[in-house]
Specification:
By secondary structure, the chain is mostly helical. It has 2 helices and no strands. The radius of gyration is 19 Å and the shape is flat.
């Protein structure tokens, strides 16, 4: 799933541009999470013994990210308000 690349004399087709755009959107969403963890939470360095403990630590890190993201969504009023 690599990006298509344009070379001299060989421009990208519209289909290749569209697939690159879709891949870029997905990649951006994923990399923002890793950027948050590495910048705000003193990097993603896990020092534990055992797969289960490491899995638990990753789960807690993800939970903290989700709570921070939820707070940001509420603070910036990004959720549409459903009027019943």
């Amino acid at each position: 799933m690599a990006f298509s690349r344009e070379f001299r004399g060989n421009p990208l087709t519209d289909e290749q541009k569209e697939t690159n755009r879709i891949k870029s959107q997905t990649r951006c969403r994923i990399e923002h999470v890793f950027g948050f963890v590495s910048n705000s939470m003193n990097d993603f360095f896990i020092q534990s013994i055992g797969f289960q403990r490491a899995k638990g630590i990753v789960g807690l890190i993800n939970l903290v990210y989700n709570m921070c993201r939820y707070e940001q969504i509420v603070r910036l009023k990004l959720l549409p308000i459903n009027k019943l």
